[in-house]
Amino acid sequence: MIPPKPMRKTRCAIYTRKSSEEGLEMEFNSLDAQRESCEAYIASQKAEGWVPVPDQYDDGGFSGGNLDRPALKRLLADIESGLIDVVVVYKIDRLSRSLMDFSKLVEVFDRNAVTFVLRFRHWSGWHLEPISPG
């Protein structure tokens, strides 16, 4: 009997953002809540080979109106380096509040064959597909 082929691991990065620094000093804050929700979704996809990467991409106190955010820059560099397969974000406005910047991010994702998942929607190319809640 031939053993089953090992499942390919899908490396998932979680990106979180909060515009203001208010409340970030709390033991459990908005970034933690976003991350927990995204971690739960990744865990629900474990059978598909999804695993979280160890790095955290958290931008606390940064506007979503531009791309000048340290954690986002690290995430994009890791995508360009081939370290990420899927980016999981709680809501689309955590990633960007600018349509032009959003299109730039999609170009990076597409160029590197990276999918991104909104916690309640799955983005694949230029259309949204409903997904089952995890």
Automatic annotation (TrEMBL):
One of its GO terms (molecular function) is DNA strand exchange activity. Residues 11-134 form the Resolvase/invertase-type recombinase catalytic domain. CDD domains: Ser_Recombinase. PROSITE patterns: RECOMBINASES_3. InterPro entries: Resolv_N, Resolvase-like_N_sf, SSR_resolvase. This is Resolvase/invertase-type recombinase catalytic domain-containing protein. It comes from Magnetospirillum moscoviense.
